[in-house]
Amino acid sequence: ITDKEGRMIGGLFEGPKSPGWPEAVAEGTRCLHAARAVALETGAYGLPPFKDERRGAFVAIPVGNSTGGGQQRPGPLFHHVKARRVIGKSILKNVAMRRLCGAQSATFAFLAPKMFNHYTRVIGAMYDNQPELVANFDNSIFTAASFNCGPQTVSLDHFDHNNLSYGPCALTPLGRYDYKRGGHLILFDLKLVIEFPPGTIAIIPSAAIRHGNTPIAPDEDRMSVAQYCAGGIFRWVAYGCKTGTSLDATKAGKAQKLRANGGYEERWAEGLGLYSTADSWANDLNILM
Fold first, then answer.
1. Total domains, the chain
2. Over the stretch 144-161, which tens digit does the pLDDT of each residue have?
């Protein structure tokens, strides 16, 4: 998917051709099936009505490191209910899920090497400053994941407004559904409706492009894995690993914050500049070597 300037801002990719990928997809599916069963049986999670959930009515289990809610620094997504913490940790221990999420991260690097390099620097700075934080997976650059366990993970049209505004997220559907007839990825602003088979990987700037899915049949089952990074992490690192509020407390801090913020158009241009074009892509890959 390219914009009018030829920047490759997203895409849909088949899974790796290496041995064992179909088995990893099958095991990842089984893992989320089991997580949903435990979540509903224990009452750790329920099925929200559509009117109360902007993404859709399905069991969603978020795990990882993020910012927001008055935090002074990035930290793990905290669940007050112990069963939620246990379910999330069990998913992270699944070897197939590690492979799925690693493939998503590698696909991001393949599509947008300059952007991936930017993430590597910023996320690395966060972990250097806070060595107590633990990444979800050692083979993924993304700081957080949402394991959407169904039974029918069909997203309503939405923006992921807490994600980095110009950054990509990774999506992989799982389950048993006829991808020719339902479960399509809809990119509303681009007027695209794309077949989205189980085990494929989509990379899209989910905070900038309104997206969702087409419905599936009542007797079908669909789940998904989404990985992302909160925009607040990038802001916190840009502020010298401090909050904007703390910088506002001094004149020097205010000046530092102003420099880091820059202008809106300047920030947006810098973000777009991290996407490759068809002409620059092969050379941009050298950044990762």
1. 1
2. 999 999 999 999 999 998
Question: Long-range contact list for 183-188, CB < 8 A, 24+ apart?
Answer: 183/154, 183/213, 183/214, 183/216, 183/222, 184/213, 184/214, 185/12, 185/211, 185/213, 186/157, 186/211, 186/212, 186/213, 186/214, 187/1, 187/10, 187/211, 188/157, 188/212
Burial 5-39 (b: 16+ CB within 10 A, else e): eebbbbbbbebbeeeebeebbebbbebbbebbebb
Q: Is residue 180 part of a domain?
A: yes
**Residue 5 resides in a domain:** no
CATH number at residue 183: 3.60.130
Greater confidence (54 vs 259) lies with 259
Domain span at 188: 11-288
Compute the distance between CA of residue 29 and CA of residue 174 in angstroms, rounded to an integer.
6
Q: Could you report the per-residue pLDDT of 54-73, keeping only the tens digit for each? A: 667 788 899 999 997 677 89
CB contact at 8 A, 105 and 64: no
